[in-house]
Amino acid sequence: MKRLWIDDGSVEVGLDEAGRGSLWGRLYVGAVIMSPEDESYFDNGVTLRKITDSKKLTPRRRAVLADFIRENAIDSAVAFAEPEEIDRDNILQADLSAMHRALHSIMIPFQRILVDGNIWRPYTDTHGSVVPAITIIEGDAVSLTVAAASILAKEAHDQWVRDEIVARPELDERYGFASNMGYGTAAHMAGLKKWGADAAHRRSFAPVRAVTGLFTAQKKR
Length: 221
Prior knowledge:
- By secondary structure, this protein is α/β, with parallel strands linked by helices.
- It has two domains: 12-165, Nucleotidyltransferase, domain 5; 169-211, no CATH class.
- Helices cover 39% and strands 15% of the residues.
- The chain contains eight helices and seven strands; from the N terminus they run E-E-H-E-H-H-E-E-E-E-H-H-H-H-H.
- The chain has helices at 59-72, 83-89, 91-104, 144-167, 170-175, 177-180, 186-195, 206-212; strands spanning 12-18, 27-33, 75-81, 112-116, 123-124, 130-131, 133-136.
- The strands form two sheets. A five-stranded mixed beta sheet has the order 3-2-1-4-7, sandwiched between helices.
- A hairpin with a 5-residue loop joins strand 5 and strand 6 (130-131).
- Helix 1 crosses helix 4.
- The chain is globular.
- 41% of the residues are buried.
Protein backbone atom coordinates (compact mmCIF):
# COMPACT_ATOMS: atom_id res chain seq x y z
CA MET A 1 0.00 0.00 0.00
CA LYS A 2 1.70 3.20 -1.20
CA ARG A 3 1.52 6.03 1.31
CA LEU A 4 2.40 8.61 -1.32
CA TRP A 5 1.85 8.06 -5.02
CA ILE A 6 4.65 10.47 -5.88
CA ASP A 7 7.09 11.45 -3.13
CA ASP A 8 7.79 15.02 -4.24
CA GLY A 9 6.51 16.99 -1.26
CA SER A 10 3.05 17.55 -2.74
CA VAL A 11 -0.01 17.00 -0.56
CA GLU A 12 -2.13 14.21 -2.04
CA VAL A 13 -5.86 13.70 -1.45
CA GLY A 14 -7.46 10.34 -2.19
CA LEU A 15 -11.00 9.88 -3.54
CA ASP A 16 -13.28 6.86 -3.70
CA GLU A 17 -17.01 6.15 -3.66
CA ALA A 18 -19.44 3.64 -2.21
CA GLY A 19 -22.88 2.70 -3.46
CA ARG A 20 -22.18 3.22 -7.14
CA GLY A 21 -23.65 -0.17 -8.06
CA SER A 22 -26.59 0.08 -5.67
CA LEU A 23 -30.09 0.15 -7.14
CA TRP A 24 -31.43 2.39 -4.39
CA GLY A 25 -30.49 5.54 -2.55
CA ARG A 26 -27.46 7.75 -2.38
CA LEU A 27 -23.94 7.34 -3.68
CA TYR A 28 -21.31 8.44 -1.15
CA VAL A 29 -17.78 9.75 -1.74
CA GLY A 30 -14.87 10.00 0.66
CA ALA A 31 -11.90 12.37 0.37
CA VAL A 32 -8.88 11.89 2.65
CA ILE A 33 -5.43 13.37 3.24
CA MET A 34 -3.23 11.12 5.39
CA SER A 35 0.28 11.71 6.70
CA PRO A 36 2.73 9.14 5.29
CA GLU A 37 4.92 9.29 8.40
CA ASP A 38 4.55 6.71 11.19
CA GLU A 39 5.46 9.24 13.86
CA SER A 40 2.39 11.29 13.00
CA TYR A 41 0.19 8.64 14.60
CA PHE A 42 -0.29 7.76 18.28
CA ASP A 43 0.47 4.08 17.59
CA ASN A 44 3.44 4.74 15.28
CA GLY A 45 1.54 3.60 12.22
CA VAL A 46 0.38 0.18 13.46
CA THR A 47 -3.28 0.84 12.59
CA LEU A 48 -2.27 2.59 9.40
CA ARG A 49 -0.99 -0.71 8.01
CA LYS A 50 -4.44 -2.26 8.41
CA ILE A 51 -6.09 0.22 6.05
CA THR A 52 -7.04 -1.45 2.79
CA ASP A 53 -9.86 -1.68 0.25
CA SER A 54 -13.11 -1.37 2.24
CA LYS A 55 -14.59 -4.37 0.40
CA LYS A 56 -11.93 -6.61 1.97
CA LEU A 57 -12.80 -5.59 5.54
CA THR A 58 -15.38 -6.97 7.91
CA PRO A 59 -18.02 -4.42 8.99
CA ARG A 60 -16.55 -4.34 12.50
CA ARG A 61 -12.98 -3.77 11.31
CA ARG A 62 -14.14 -1.17 8.79
CA ALA A 63 -15.98 0.79 11.50
CA VAL A 64 -12.88 0.79 13.74
CA LEU A 65 -10.68 1.97 10.88
CA ALA A 66 -13.19 4.66 9.89
CA ASP A 67 -12.98 6.09 13.42
CA PHE A 68 -9.18 5.99 13.23
CA ILE A 69 -9.17 7.76 9.86
CA ARG A 70 -11.56 10.49 10.98
CA GLU A 71 -9.50 11.11 14.13
CA ASN A 72 -6.03 10.92 12.53
CA ALA A 73 -6.36 12.17 8.97
CA ILE A 74 -4.84 15.54 8.18
CA ASP A 75 -8.22 16.30 6.64
CA SER A 76 -11.21 14.30 5.43
CA ALA A 77 -14.67 14.87 4.01
CA VAL A 78 -17.69 12.95 2.80
CA ALA A 79 -20.20 14.02 0.15
CA PHE A 80 -23.08 12.29 -1.59
CA ALA A 81 -25.31 12.29 -4.66
CA GLU A 82 -29.04 11.76 -4.30
CA PRO A 83 -30.84 9.26 -6.58
CA GLU A 84 -32.52 12.17 -8.40
CA GLU A 85 -29.11 13.51 -9.42
CA ILE A 86 -27.99 10.03 -10.48
CA ASP A 87 -31.09 9.59 -12.68
CA ARG A 88 -30.77 13.09 -14.13
CA ASP A 89 -27.06 13.17 -14.91
CA ASN A 90 -26.16 9.42 -15.02
CA ILE A 91 -24.16 7.54 -12.40
CA LEU A 92 -20.72 8.55 -13.71
CA GLN A 93 -21.43 12.28 -13.77
CA ALA A 94 -23.16 12.15 -10.37
CA ASP A 95 -20.14 10.31 -8.96
CA LEU A 96 -17.71 12.91 -10.33
CA SER A 97 -19.87 15.78 -9.06
CA ALA A 98 -19.96 14.24 -5.58
CA MET A 99 -16.17 13.88 -5.71
CA HIS A 100 -15.87 17.56 -6.52
CA ARG A 101 -18.17 18.42 -3.60
CA ALA A 102 -16.03 16.33 -1.27
CA LEU A 103 -12.92 18.17 -2.48
CA HIS A 104 -14.66 21.51 -1.88
CA SER A 105 -15.03 20.48 1.78
CA ILE A 106 -11.31 19.77 2.27
CA MET A 107 -9.79 22.73 4.10
CA ILE A 108 -6.10 21.77 3.79
CA PRO A 109 -4.53 22.88 0.48
CA PHE A 110 -3.65 19.92 -1.74
CA GLN A 111 -1.57 19.70 -4.91
CA ARG A 112 -2.53 16.28 -6.28
CA ILE A 113 -5.73 14.24 -6.49
CA LEU A 114 -5.70 10.43 -6.55
CA VAL A 115 -8.91 8.97 -7.96
CA ASP A 116 -10.04 5.37 -7.86
CA GLY A 117 -10.99 4.39 -11.42
CA ASN A 118 -10.01 5.52 -14.88
CA ILE A 119 -12.16 8.61 -15.58
CA TRP A 120 -11.88 12.11 -14.14
CA ARG A 121 -13.42 15.53 -14.64
CA PRO A 122 -10.81 18.27 -14.05
CA TYR A 123 -11.14 19.99 -10.68
CA THR A 124 -10.47 23.71 -10.28
CA ASP A 125 -9.42 25.02 -6.87
CA THR A 126 -10.49 28.28 -5.24
CA HIS A 127 -7.65 30.11 -7.03
CA GLY A 128 -8.91 29.04 -10.45
CA SER A 129 -6.13 26.50 -11.03
CA VAL A 130 -6.76 22.98 -12.27
CA VAL A 131 -5.35 20.53 -9.71
CA PRO A 132 -3.34 17.68 -11.25
CA ALA A 133 -5.09 14.32 -10.87
CA ILE A 134 -4.07 10.70 -11.34
CA THR A 135 -6.63 7.98 -11.98
CA ILE A 136 -5.71 4.59 -10.54
CA ILE A 137 -7.47 1.36 -11.45
CA GLU A 138 -8.29 -0.45 -8.18
CA GLY A 139 -6.69 2.47 -6.36
CA ASP A 140 -8.21 1.38 -3.07
CA ALA A 141 -5.96 -1.69 -3.17
CA VAL A 142 -2.70 0.18 -3.78
CA SER A 143 -2.99 3.73 -2.38
CA LEU A 144 -3.33 4.50 1.34
CA THR A 145 -5.33 7.70 0.83
CA VAL A 146 -7.70 6.12 -1.70
CA ALA A 147 -8.23 3.11 0.58
CA ALA A 148 -8.96 5.45 3.50
CA ALA A 149 -11.44 7.34 1.32
CA SER A 150 -13.14 4.08 0.37
CA ILE A 151 -13.60 3.20 4.05
CA LEU A 152 -15.15 6.57 4.93
CA ALA A 153 -17.45 6.41 1.90
CA LYS A 154 -18.60 2.87 2.68
CA GLU A 155 -19.23 3.64 6.35
CA ALA A 156 -21.18 6.79 5.49
CA HIS A 157 -23.24 4.98 2.85
CA ASP A 158 -24.12 2.01 5.05
CA GLN A 159 -24.93 4.18 8.07
CA TRP A 160 -27.30 6.24 5.93
CA VAL A 161 -29.05 3.05 4.77
CA ARG A 162 -29.36 1.86 8.38
CA ASP A 163 -30.80 5.22 9.44
CA GLU A 164 -33.34 5.05 6.62
CA ILE A 165 -34.37 1.56 7.73
CA VAL A 166 -34.92 2.79 11.29
CA ALA A 167 -37.15 5.57 9.96
CA ARG A 168 -38.91 3.25 7.49
CA PRO A 169 -38.75 -0.42 8.56
CA GLU A 170 -40.69 -1.48 5.45
CA LEU A 171 -37.52 -0.90 3.41
CA ASP A 172 -35.94 -3.94 5.01
CA GLU A 173 -39.19 -5.91 5.12
CA ARG A 174 -39.77 -5.42 1.39
CA TYR A 175 -36.27 -5.28 -0.09
CA GLY A 176 -33.90 -6.74 2.52
CA PHE A 177 -31.84 -3.56 2.80
CA ALA A 178 -30.39 -4.44 6.21
CA SER A 179 -28.34 -7.16 4.55
CA ASN A 180 -27.89 -5.93 0.95
CA MET A 181 -27.53 -2.16 1.56
CA GLY A 182 -29.51 -1.45 -1.60
CA TYR A 183 -27.57 -3.71 -3.96
CA GLY A 184 -29.37 -6.03 -6.35
CA THR A 185 -29.53 -9.28 -4.40
CA ALA A 186 -32.18 -11.94 -5.00
CA ALA A 187 -34.19 -10.65 -2.04
CA HIS A 188 -34.04 -7.09 -3.37
CA MET A 189 -35.13 -8.14 -6.86
CA ALA A 190 -37.99 -10.20 -5.43
CA GLY A 191 -39.11 -7.16 -3.44
CA LEU A 192 -39.01 -4.98 -6.54
CA LYS A 193 -41.22 -7.44 -8.40
CA LYS A 194 -43.71 -7.69 -5.53
CA TRP A 195 -43.80 -4.13 -4.23
CA GLY A 196 -42.52 -2.08 -7.15
CA ALA A 197 -39.95 0.68 -6.77
CA ASP A 198 -39.52 2.90 -3.74
CA ALA A 199 -39.22 6.64 -4.29
CA ALA A 200 -35.42 6.43 -3.79
CA HIS A 201 -34.84 3.63 -6.30
CA ARG A 202 -32.63 4.66 -9.21
CA ARG A 203 -35.01 4.53 -12.13
CA SER A 204 -32.20 4.93 -14.66
CA PHE A 205 -30.78 1.52 -13.64
CA ALA A 206 -31.87 -1.39 -15.82
CA PRO A 207 -33.18 -3.73 -13.07
CA VAL A 208 -35.38 -0.93 -11.72
CA ARG A 209 -36.50 0.07 -15.22
CA ALA A 210 -37.58 -3.51 -15.80
CA VAL A 211 -40.09 -3.11 -12.97
CA THR A 212 -41.12 0.52 -13.36
CA GLY A 213 -41.19 0.74 -17.16
CA LEU A 214 -39.20 2.86 -19.54
CA PHE A 215 -37.07 5.65 -18.15
CA THR A 216 -35.99 8.68 -20.15
CA ALA A 217 -32.93 10.35 -18.65
CA GLN A 218 -32.50 14.06 -19.15
CA LYS A 219 -29.39 14.53 -21.24
CA LYS A 220 -26.65 16.41 -19.48
CA ARG A 221 -26.03 19.72 -21.20
